[in-house]
Specification:
alpha+beta, Phosphatidylinositol 3-kinase Catalytic Subunit, Chain A, Domain 5, 2 domains
Length: 340
Amino acid sequence: MTFLPSLAVKQDKPSFRILKEEELIVRLDIKEEIGIVTWDDKPRLSVAGVQDKLNVFIDAQGNIGFGDGPLCSTHIVKFEKRNCPNLVLNEFFCMKLSSVIGLPTAEVEFRRFGTHPSLVVKRFDRKYIADANKVMRRHVIDGNQALNLPRDYKYERNLGNSRDVQHIRDGASLVKLFEFTNKMSSPIQSKQWLIHWQLFNLMISNYDSHGKNISLFFDKKNTQFTPAYDLVNIALFPQFKQALAMAMGDEFDPNDIHAYQLADFAETCGIEKKLLSRLLIQLANDVIKQLSTGDLIDNLATQPHFTDNDISYFQQLSHNILTKTEYLKTQASQIPSIEV
Ligand SMILES: Nc1ncnc2c1ncn2[C@@H]1O[C@H](COP(=O)(O)OP(=O)(O)O)[C@@H](O)[C@H]1O
Ligand SMILES: [Mg+2]
């Protein structure tokens, strides 16, 4: 694993501007009007993506703030917009589920600032060396960069889903990503990672798994997928687009993924159908085991920051994921015999 010193060295000396909890709460209270990017009249580099978020350094004592010089950010803190209640809880739960069933997943913590829920995401491309008081970085590229596609090609239907342009599919796709795995350090492992990523996205209804919601560690010696991130159950947000970012075969409708579309996915992406069937059953069993026993929620319920409302939201989410996963599992045995 290669971590390099921070490139963004505007100054040699480390500086750390602590963000006090009360100060952050005040800003979050007026976030919708003012935004949260500018602090002390300086724009704090915002991370790409759609949710409101801050790039922060968190020190050994747990203080949050802005690092400069050799102290670049180690965490991303994501907040939710007023029109997307429960988004943070949703993402937190999906990330935890991914992690407990053993998929490589970015580490997350749930935190409330005043009434504002937030997801504290540990950056997998940064590492704090306490002895030297500096942050090392590891080079990462996203799916679009790997595929040599411009940033606005993150959806396979790069011009959108409306009827006149939906046949244009020049954006990031599963077919292109699977083809790319042949150039990665361990093609077989990478393919398996990608199959797991996609199957899990289907189980949790993370329709927004586009070319910039997948990344790779990329250096001279090594090209491999980073842990998963930005996992959200979109089915529980009717205000979001209910279409898959990348097709399964030719299917973009998440409610139309059955054995045939799974077989088509295997065929178009060069995956053995028997392998897909086997991995689907295994992964489904892992998800079903976690959710049907209620272990994950019971565990979360012991954490003091979750309210009764939060827990009942987790239950609703868990039910949604369980239903979808059980359905996908029923399709698995038919996949190998389907001729596309
Ligand atoms: N754990 C992480 N480590 C490093 N980079 C990350 C991590 N999580 C997300 N990113 C980067 O930050 C971007 C925005 O994060 P994301 O969770 O996708 O936010 P949004 O919900 O706004 O799309 C991602 O596209 C990715 O490039
Ligand atoms: Mg994203």
